Amino acid sequence: MSSQAWKRATRRAFDDKLPEADHSTRTKRIAGQLTERIESRTGIEAEAAARIAGALLEPLGIKAGKKAGDTAYLLFFGYGSWTTSS
User: Fold this and answer.
1) 27 has which bridge partners?
2) What are the residues whose beta carbons fall under 8 Å from the beta carbon of 34, sequence distance 6 or more?
3) Is it the case that residue 86 has pLDDT exceeding 70?
4) Are 57 and 34 in contact (CB under 8 A)?
5) Is the dihedral of CA 39, 56, 51, 54 positive or negative?
6) Whole-model pTM above 0.90?
7) How many CA atoms lie within 13 A of 77 on its CB side?
């Protein structure tokens, strides 16, 4: 069995045991999700929101991927760090 399979099984086991608010995910789509959140909360147009999202991620060392809205690599983050009250 591969190490990737063990890691995936471990992540899924944690999701079964933890409350949903403590779940997490791996994704390359942080920049796109951040862009959408900026658009919806500020009314800024998509292109400007994408530039702002990129500027926010740059100091963290998170580089853009090949596709718009993607990062160059998978990031792991908890849902609790993404959700906030309105």
Assistant:
1) 75
2) 53, 56, 57
3) no
4) yes
5) negative
6) no
7) 14
